[in-house]
Amino acid sequence: MVRVRFAPSPTGPLHIGGVRTALYNYLFARKLGGTFILRIEDTDQTRFVEGAEEYIMESLEWCGIKVDEGIREGGPFGPYRQSDKKEDYRQYAEMLVGKGDAYYAFDTPEDLEQMRMSYEKRGDTFIYSGSVRDSLSNSLALPEEEWKAKLAGGDHYVIRYRMPVNEDIHFDDLIRGHIVVNSSTLDDKVLFKSDGMPTYHLAHCVDDHIMEITHVIRGEEWLPSLPLHKLLYRSFGWASPEFAHLPLLLKPDGKGKLSKRDGDKLGFPVFPLYWPYGETAKGYREDGYYPEAFINMLALLGWNPGTEQEIFSMDELTDAFSIERVHKSGSRFDPEKAKWFNHQYLLKRSNEEIAMQFREELRAKGFQIDLQEIEELVALVKERVSFAKDLWAETDFFFVAPDKYDPEVVRKRWKEDTPALLAELRGVLENTDPFSPAETETAVKAWITEKGYNTGNVMNALRLVIVGASRGPHIFDIISWLGKESTIERIDKGLSEIGK
RNA sequence: GGUCCAUUCGUCUAGUGGUUAGGACGUCAGGUUUUCAUCCUGGUAACAGGGGUUCGAUUCCCCUAUGGACUACCA
Known about the structure:
Blueprint: E1 3-6, H1 16-31, E2 35-38, H2 52-63, H3 86-99, E3 102-105, H4 109-121, H5 144-152, E4 158-161, E5 168-173, E6 177-182, E7 190-192, H6 200-210, E8 215-219, H7 226-236, E9 242-246, E10 249-250, H8 262-266, H9 291-299, H10 314-320, E11 331-332, H11 335-348, H12 351-364, H13 371-381, H14 391-399, H15 407-413, H16 418-430, H17 437-451, H18 455-467, H19 475-482, H20 484-497
Parallel strand pairs: 1-2, 8-9, 10-11
Antiparallel strand pairs: 3-4, 4-7, 5-6
Helix pairs in contact: 1-10, 9-11, 12-13, 16-18, 16-20, 17-19, 18-20
The chain binds one RNA strand of 75 nucleotides through strand 6, helix 6, strand 11, helix 11 and helix 18.
């Protein structure tokens, strides 16, 4: 039975890289009929951010990623928040000390900082490991009575892993294949902190074991500490889960991995949802993205099924997904393509659904329009926009008569005979019934032909007085939607205001 | 600096020991729309470099370069 987990740290809003990690875990679990677990890793009390936990859950929900076991959902392997069982971790750390694979260390952060600095002065790098641990303040170097006295005396201490010396550690990654690292390049990582909390290394290993996690799918930043984690499982005598390290998401321009600040700087969101605390950060949801489009775009960043299909529902993603086809190298995020994805999904939505959304915006602007009419409008312009929120910019002239006329268009299209032409056209339209796109077009064209006028001159002038610029859908669709009365009014207004 | 990971069009990517190296986004051009956008058609554009192995390497190996991650009592 496959069991995977997404284990974020509640230190702020979830970044899209994190969402993708959650997504791949979710797809993997669903594909194999497994269980997707959400575990909150809040062992760093200093970085805890109020609201982050809720934000994470809400984000996953919005994305359509359903959690099987977690804080809200419950489950047989709880608690699912690490701080809720902080006392449990100590015994596991002590267990390792008992086995001789870990030890107490009394060095203060200040001591270590000083060591690092003096090493750095010599052009060296200090690492707490086999070569120096015997000369530092710990239970391996100190006489037994002394360190036991320190322990009994309540001295602050941490528990460190005793990294074996010069051992080649072999391990396999589902995405990267076989990797070998020599243990002498690794340091004695802190497992248990002096504040009574475990570090990530200890806590995730213990929890993955307790929760019977079969596959750990996480970001590439964890690859360097995988040897330690493998060793930890060995020391505990536990079977290790399989590991898969996902490539990073890179900035669209320049170098490096996508960071939380890139969004505002480059003008696109890096968070799924708006983050209301601290620095304001916009989200995909508020920017008008459909969750399906967002997920589709994210899924294809670092994975693809090997076919040319690009549009996938969550179910289709689940069917097609395989961890082996996840890339090894990082992918640069492309905001342009993200928009394209949303456009595709917008096209798939019904006019009615889009219209209902648009109606809210119109109401807020003070326009009470019948849904049926909004639907007609949506049908006219939906393929011109990527987001429902862009509808207004494409349709503003339907609701408000132009109060200024694009001077460039006026210069090009407003000829000497235009007023006379429009006055005559006004009469033609006035006598056209019903005022439908087909009927008006037929009438106007017949009139043009009869009089031998230039079609372009008439049409462009009409568009100018109706729209105020050279843009918008088919002109007869516009005037028909507007109705005879408004159309006539706009012609009159144009006649009196242009060309004075 | 050290350790580890990676490298196909600008971007996301497909692909193979012998291919005209395919698709998508973007971009450019033409067509349609007597507007603009859409849409259609077409174009542009890539195997990081150098050595091997091989009859033949983009594909396999090594080196270099470049990029990235990690190098906390953070995750």
